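Possible regression after last week's pipeline update?

I re-ran a chain I had predicted before the update to compare outputs. Posting the input and the new output here so someone can diff against the archived version. Not blocking, just want to make sure nothing changed silently.
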Amino acid sequence: MSLVIKRSLLALVIPASLVSVAYADTIENCEVNKDIIINNHLTLLSIPEFNHAREVETVTESDNTRSAFYYKFNYDRCGQLTDMYAQITRNELRFRIDSSYDISKNQQGWKNSYNVTLFGMNKLFYAREGAISYHADDNGLIVNSTDNYISASDEKKAENGITSGIYKTDDKFRMAYSLLSGTDESVNGEYRFFYQPDNKPFALISPTMSISYLYDEQQRASGMIEITVSPYYLGSKKTDCLEWNERNDCTRSVSKELEMFPAYIVDRTTVLRSTYTYW
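New output (post-update):
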């Protein structure tokens, strides 16, 4: 089930936090420029756009599989992510995935401390705990990362692992490419962003998953389509914003997800609520 774990770690997409580019008034004396902040946000969270809220909190309103999702984001006045916390429980009928992520900014860049466990049939199939350190250059742009972790199960003793990442921008200074390599072969490979003519992110393509970013007639980031192909299961997920606030931030979204395993299918519908506090 390492592919399921990989999906949780590297595609941390927050459906209810899809927002339009409703930037606040230009803030003077920001140490990092807007383009770098947008690129770092893509690298850390795979979310194409962000807003200038001070705090965003997302909770589960309903889920037909008894799964639960909680996210909390904090930003500075320049729109840069200062910290994020996520607590996720996914019920997959025959097993359950519990995961938590704690991202915080530091002098080198950011650190994402995470914990993932996979339970089923009164058995621990997989457990992984680690920390991803994201390193920024002198301009504040994330250029590489190191993931140090330990993994184990009821049938396998604890093992240490490491994954290294490099991140590159294109000739228009947009985050375009990352390469992961290391101990865990299920996460190794290229991850590429593609853009529309107006520079809005169009898609993220990885070795086992693709994410398409959707926009409405007002050019708000209104949803996502995710497709996963792996040796363990086939998955599809579509997220749509249902309600917006006066600043065009999505306050309620619905995700319809289908996961096809060799012996059964999980059909999940999740509704999330978000609240915003602004500077």
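Follow-up from reviewer: compared with the archived run. Confidence is low (pLDDT under 50) at residues 1-10, 20-25. Marking as no regression found.
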